[in-house]
Amino acid sequence: MLSSYSQVGIHREALSLFHRMRISNTKPDHFSFTATLSTCAGLNNLQNGAKIHALVIAFGYRCSLPINNSLIDMYGKEIRETSCAYDHWTLSALMNVYGESSEMSFGYMVHALVIITGWSTAIETKNLIISFYTKLSSQSDDIKEFKSIGVLSYARNGDREQVLSFFVDMMRNCMCPNDFTFEVVLNGCSSLAVLGHGRMVNGCVIYYGFHAHVYVGNDLVYMYAKCGDIEGSSHTFNEILDKDLDSWIAMLFGFGMHGLAR
C-alpha cells in the first residue's frame, strides 16, 4: 500500500502510513524505504528525508542499490529545486566546505548534483569527492560503508568507465571496498569487456578476503566469460566453495558464450 500511495502521488498519505508503521513497531524493508524516500522527494521534504536516511542506516540497508538510488534522487531534487546553474568551481567549493565540516547529508546532496549536472569527470570535483569520503571513512566504522555510494552513483547512470575510475581512486586513497562495491565494479568490467581491469579487481577481491562470498565469485565467473577468458571463468567457478544455482548458471552462460555446448 505504501508503494501504491507513492506511485500515484499521494505523498502525504504515504508518509503518514510510514509513521504509523514505525509507531506499531513494524520493521520497514527496502521497499518501504524506497517508497518513503520517493515520497519525501515528491514533497520536497528534506527534513523527513534525512530522518528516513538515518533509519536506513540504523536498519542496515545502506548498501541497497534501490535505496541509494532513491537517496540520490531525493537529495538531487532538493538541490535542483533550490539552486540555479552551478559550474564545477562552485561544486568543488561546496564539496570542500562539507568535507571540512563533515556535514554528511549536504555532502551527499552536492555529490548527487555533481553527477546530475555532468561535472563528475572534472578533476577538481572528482578529487574533492574522494577527499570527502576519505575523511568520513576515517571518523567512524559505521560511516565506512558510505564510500560505495560514489561507485553506485556512477553505475546508476551507466557510467561504467567512471565506475572503474572511481574504484581505482578508492584503492589509491586506501579506502577498503565492501562486497557490494565489488559486485558493481565487476559488472562494469563485464560490460566494458576489459580483462586487465577485471583481473586487477579479482586481485583486490582476494586481498580483501571477499573470494569466499558466493555472489562475488559468481560475478567473477561472468566477468571472465564476457571478457573472453573461459579458463579464468572455469577456474573461478571451481574455487567457489558453496556454489548456488547462480554459480551454475554463470558457468553454463560462459560455456555457451564460447561455443562449448558439450
Automatic annotation (TrEMBL):
Gene3D superfamilies documented for this protein: Tetratricopeptide repeat domain
This protein's record includes keyword Cell membrane: no
Lineage: Eukaryota, Viridiplantae, Streptophyta, Embryophyta, Tracheophyta
Protein's name in the database: Pentatricopeptide repeat-containing protein
Protein species of origin: Dipteronia dyeriana
Nucleotide-binding keyword on record: no
One GO MF term: RNA binding
Keywords (A to Z) from UniProt: Repeat
GO biological process: RNA modification
Highest taxon, organism lineage: Eukaryota
PPR-type repeats, residues: 1-28
